[in-house]
Known about the structure:
Layout: H1 5-39, H2 45-52, E1 57-58, E2 61-62, H3 77-85, E3 113-119, E4 122-127, E5 130-134, E6 168-170, H4 181-190, E7 195-198, H5 202-207, E8 215-218, E9 223-226, E10 229-234, E11 253-257, E12 262-265, H6 274-282, E13 285-291, H7 306-315, E14 318-324, H8 338-349, E15 353-354, E16 362-364
Parallel strand pairs: 5-6, 6-7, 7-8, 12-13, 13-14, 14-15
Antiparallel strand pairs: 1-2, 3-4, 3-16, 4-5, 9-10, 10-11, 11-12
Amino acid sequence: MRTPKRSTGRRIGASMAGLAALAGLAGLAWVAREVPAALGGRLTGPRADRAARSPQFREGVFHNRPGTPITAPAPDRNMLRELLFGKQKRRPSAPVPLVRAAPVTPVDPARELNVIWYGHATTLIEIEGRRVLLDPVWSQRCSPSAALGPHRLHEPPAGLAELPRLDAILISHDHYDHLDMATVRELTARQSAPFLVPLGVGAHLDRWGVPADRIVELDWGQTHRLAGLEITCAAAQHFSGRGLRRNGTLWSSWVVAGQQRRVYYTGDSGYFPGYAEIGAAHGPFDVTLIQIGAYDRAWPSIHMFPEEAVAAHVDLRGGLLVPVHWGTFNLALHDWSEPVDRLWVEAKARDLRLAVPRPGERVVVDDPPAVDGWWQAIA
């Protein structure tokens, strides 16, 4: 006797409901496993002892220089209203143009200096035959969750498997838009380069399976030498934290110096007197990679406004300025293109050398592309 169609439908519906329930349980299991892991590790044992000896560490947490309060973003009613009803154009109107930079053989390896901006703060430095990767983030979201948090506005212009052999991977601090668990795990498997990080950040890498001999933790002013480069952890004015607890790890900027070429990367930082001091101690720099986006009047001491980025470049005794930390993630209320528009105006007013590459475009520091306003066509 043939089974009625209604019974068949009920069985199919029950099967689909069962599959949905299993998928939901699998999702919950993933969240229960991955989200706590993404929060990272905590300072314990010798790592905690070393942090306690840092001049930046007081009362159980790291601090900015004396007299500099931390005004981190804190949601309030006005911010929520702007997020929901503000008239800012916080996304481009068309796809962000991506470039696939082909491998090159430098004419003079001893003087080679190029940078490839992959988006947000992620940048590859090609210096005197060495390759240094800054703040790599390849995930779709800068968040502990794959389902929530700021989503990419453009894809990475190259895959992690396409990166050249790296000599060092530098992390400026532990915020999700600069330190990404999935990316770190894949780089650990694909590359052999050490991770150079500010004090305490090694606890996160430990938890994610990075071998101890590939973790180099530095305090401000300390230098690590490798592959003919001197890499110095320098001061910054910011804060840290991947969960409710803040400032359990240090934040930094970075100096990458070869025999002839020098690069400076701000990480995330407000404008502060440290830039002039770093310029005097380590400059002049052939190129500065300077954070320009995600600013707001509510947190002026932890991110720079574009005009302050230009002032920092001057303080640092920089040659070419390449802006980073804009265009990839929505992290503030300003228009998507506003940071680079304001930067271009200020750079022209002060007659500075500026390059604004498309994601993936190689900038040869000695022969940079002219600024062509490419972003304005999609703003």
